[in-house]
Amino acid sequence: MLCSAGDVLEDDPVGRLKVFVYELPSKYNKKILQKDPRCLTHMFAAEIYMHRFLLSSPVRTLNPEEADWFYTPVYTTCDLTPNGLPLPFKSPRMMRSAIQLISSNWPYWNRTEGADHFFVVPHDFGACFHYQEEKAIERGILPLLQRATLVQTFGQQNHVCLKESSITIPPYAPPQKMQAHLIPERTPRSIFVYFRGLFYDVGNDPEGGYYARGARAAVWENFKDNPLFDISTEHPTTYYEDMQRAVFCLCPLGWAPWSPRLVEAVIFGCIPVIIADDIVLPFADAIPWEEIGVFVAEKDVPNLDTILTSIPSDLILRKQRLLANPSMKQAMLFPQPAQPGDAFHQVLNGLARKLPHDKSIYLKSGEKILNWTAGPVGDLKPW
Predict the structure, then answer these.
(1) Range of the domain at 224
(2) Fewer CB in 10 Å around end: N or C, the chain?
(3) Are residues 354 and 209 part of one domain?
(4) CATH number of 246's domain
(5) What stretches of 275-328 adopt beta strand conformation (E)?
(6) Which is nearest to 295 in space by CA: 344, 259, 248?
(7) Closest by alpha carbon to 24, among 65, 76, 83?
(8) According to its UniProt record, where is this protein mainly located (predicted)?
(9) What secondary structure does DSSP assign to 323-360, as a single string?
(10) Structurally, how many domains does the chain consist of?
(11) pLDDT band for position 199 (50/70/90)?
(12) Is the pLDDT of residue 89 over 50?
């Protein structure tokens, strides 16, 4: 019988794969973090914690000859603006430099041109390395990563920045911070629909057509005065507690599947209302999103009130019961130290499910597939 999503949440990857971690000069990782420790708490911090986790993980092997997968620890999202937003402009040069290093110092990259390597690229549009969608599409995935497996927070079907073989992960949300706000499980859910956040990107997109693909602006325009909807740009100190009092939490993700709101909704048992056409959600082969969430097409946002009030109460209770499952919550978090079934383990499970590698990944003598000079000229400058 085929496993459905949810059946594999508690799989244990230990013994199913071995990972070799390249030792790179600290300028690719630790020194970058030393320069800006804020990287440890922003939503793309998974690249740092995944590195730390693998260094002490039982799946790590020090013998590359027996490795199933090779991991290159490069912190490409740790160049932050004063406001704490990652700037990806140096990332392509940095990643190219790291790949040149591993390909000239070890023989493993050259055997497959990266087809048995994985990289954590948790930026807005993953390895397209740009925060504006138009520019990201124009750039495409860094050519040298075309054969590698990418672990990324961005996930949208039929998008140039998502490869079919990618593993989509949740954004990093500080586990201790959320656990500190847990309230008694039996607290009544007295809020019907809850959302806190921006509806318009006033600086760049005041009309709201681009930001979250217009989904947030549509929510505000249609439901700002609806008593069933507790929505606001204000972010109260009781934010986490309020989520635990809500039946539905809006996740108008648009092009941003890395929104921490999705993680928060699952952790606090608030049914996520996912407004994002063609989205690929974190660990979709393990988390039964269709069963725990409600999917609303972007064009149907004006009918949100009708859609949500017409969901039968027994279906709401079923979703809430599934969300109460600790393994569902565990899979969305990157705790320190790591715990069985957490997001680290789900990444490893995803890699284990891709094994054994097909023999076709190994290049024949003299064969080359990747073009080292492809991509924008600026990317070719030394880092």
Answers:
(1) 175-330
(2) N
(3) no
(4) 3.40.50.2000
(5) 294-295
(6) 248
(7) 76
(8) Golgi
(9) HT-HHHHHTT---SS--TTSHHHHHHHHHHTTPSPPGG
(10) 2
(11) confident
(12) yes
